Amino acid sequence: MRTPPRTALNALTMRTTHRAEVYLSSHELAAAAGISPVRLARLVRLGVVEPDAPHPGMFTAVTVGRLRRILRLHRDLGVDLTGAAVIVELLERLERLETELNRWRGGVR
């Protein structure tokens, strides 16, 4: 079977999942996402993004891509931040399920 074409979103997810063991401080995450630390603190309070549980105050590198997608949905489509976070979470779940399905079909190893 043929595997589906790689989209920009899939490529970003593939790149970021390999760096999941890299952790960023809140200042580093804010800089990588192009926002102020104050705005990041607000997003954390709202539950839009969360620090890594075993490492208080630290974020996984995957959070950078997730936060950028959330902010892009908010900016470009006017989706509220909580709704954008839900959309991104659903997209990530869908990508994981597609990967799993491809493995079951023998398309991806």
Number of helices: 5
Q: Report the radius of gyration as a whole number of Å.
A: 15 Å
Strand order of the largest sheet: 1-2
Determine the structural class based on helices, strands and strand pairing: mainly alpha
Helix content: 55-70%
Largest sheet properties: 2 strands, antiparallel
Strand content: 5-15%
Q: Layout of helices and strands, plus pairs?
A:
Layout: H1 8-17, E1 23-25, H2 26-33, H3 37-46, E2 58-60, H4 62-77, H5 81-105
Antiparallel strand pairs: 1-2
Helix pairs in contact: 2-3, 4-5
Task: Please provide a written account of the structure.
The chain has a two-stranded antiparallel sheet with strand order 1-2. The protein has 109 residues and is mainly α. It is globular. It has helices at 8-17, 26-33, 37-46, 62-77, 81-105; strands at 23-25, 58-60. α2 packs across α3 (37-46) and α4 packs across α5.
